[in-house]
Amino acid sequence: MKTDILIVGSGCSALYLALNLPEETDVVIITKKDAESSDSFLAQGGMCMWHDPDDFNAYMEDTLRAGHYENDRRSVELMIRSSPEVARDLARYGVEFQKDEQGRPVFTREGAHSSSRILFHADQTGREITSKLLAQVRKRSRVRLLEYTTMLDLLCRDDRCFGAVVQKDGGEPYAIRANATVLATGGIGGLFRHSTNYRHLTGDALAIAMKHGIALEHLDYIQVHPTTLYVKDARERSFLISESLRGEGARLYGKNGEPFADELLPRDVLTEKILEQMEKDGEDHVWEDLRPVGREALRSHFPNIVEHCRKMGYDVFSQCIPVVPAQHYFMGGIKVDHESRTTMGRLYAVGETACNGVHGRNRLASNSLLESLVFAKRAAQDICGLKKDEGEAQRTFPADLSAYRDGGRILQDYRRQVKDAIRRTGAEAADGLCEDAAEQERRREYV
Length: 447
Ligand SMILES: Cc1cc2nc3c(=O)[nH]c(=O)nc-3n(C[C@H](O)[C@H](O)[C@H](O)COP(=O)(O)OP(=O)(O)OC[C@H]3O[C@@H](n4cnc5c(N)ncnc54)[C@H](O)[C@@H]3O)c2cc1C
Hints:
By secondary structure, the protein is an alpha/beta fold. The chain has 13 helices and 16 strands. The protein has helices at residues 12-19, 56-66, 73-92, 125-139, 204-211, 243-247, 267-281, 295-301, 303-311, 368-384, 388-394, 407-425, 437-446; strands at 2-8, 27-30, 47-48, 118-119, 143-146, 149-157, 160-168, 173-183, 216-217, 222-229, 251-253, 286-289, 321-330, 333-335, 347-349, 354-355. Residues 8-14, 30-33, 37-40, 42-47, 125-126, 150-151, 184-187, 196-197, 200-201, 204, 240, 329, 351-353, 366-369, 372 line the site of flavin-adenine dinucleotide.
């Protein structure tokens, strides 16, 4: 198969990038599961937007402070300054954010934000944004969206990328040759025992990047979300109890009903406090009281969370809910510049799988949808400037596909390689990585 641009992933970064390419460009988007199964659909809280000219420095400072001042300042500045443009684009694509009676946008607040600057759509902001982007992409006649199709490797020569080896579930591997390739494969939550992420997000692109000597950065920068609903026998994805709830007044308590932390601390600091409290209490969770948010606000702003808790046996209007930290977001990833270019020619990375330094060591809430979109657009603009003929000449080289027949085994190896790489960094969060039976055996032997 041949195309102008190959995009791996169907989350918000992938879709927005596709929409920012000229309509006459041939684009192939592949995705491991169905098009809706991406973390972008799960985002609850919202998307930051710089809307008050006087808020620029405070927004910058909040992002830097949350990131322990390890952020790339230029990336942060680009993200903040581009946010009104992105919000306008989204409105054009039909995305609806909460408005007041006069039709003006309403902004909410989350932990570590010094002011209200978050656009939201009830507690399903990600679904609202990504479903509308997907609908627009589906209208484009030159974009082909291939579901249940997994990238197994990149096609590389002379430090340039010319597409990927892919496999449809149950099918034979084949090559998709492209003038430029974009990795938009999301996070790594599927590697952890407890994570808010989809289980199929396992950092495949990171393993493939390592294989080809493409630079990665900060594999130890893994964010744990302080509050997910505690379930005794957790096998599925952890359900997020949005930080916006704490922004709107929800309180945290220990076993005996005592407050133990400022609920609006940055995520990493609050997570530590919760873990300390759990240890002190000898419990697997702490308690969150959503009642201070108020009945009306809970119903109108957080209907999905209220309903999920009800299904799990908790009436948030009359009782506290048990909450526990879980892996949530990956600040590290494939190293990219401000145009989302990786260290390999004609290969871009956007969204959570990329690391442009925006988040530093710890992401500020509601910055990731925005960051994904801002740097996806920048990638699209850069791709438009690539000379086509240069790639055209290269893209006919033959790829030996016989080594890719057993895609399942290849992906399993990739998972192991990424977990090993994370463990080697000594990251605290590595304790939460899940181990398959073979790995447990290997470790026992090693010990
Ligand atoms: C529960 C939850 C709540 C969140 N809330 C917020 C919020 O309120 N605000 C905010 O800013 N951020 C939030 N985030 C983070 C944000 O949703 C993500 O960082 C962002 O959506 C990532 O988008 P993406 O395009 O990079 O990847 P994703 O949306 O995760 O998409 C990754 C895509 O890659 C595909 N893929 C992966 N590997 C392969 C492969 N080998 N071959 C083919 N396809 C592959 C997947 O199938 C998927 O389509 C939240 C995240 C979660 C999990």
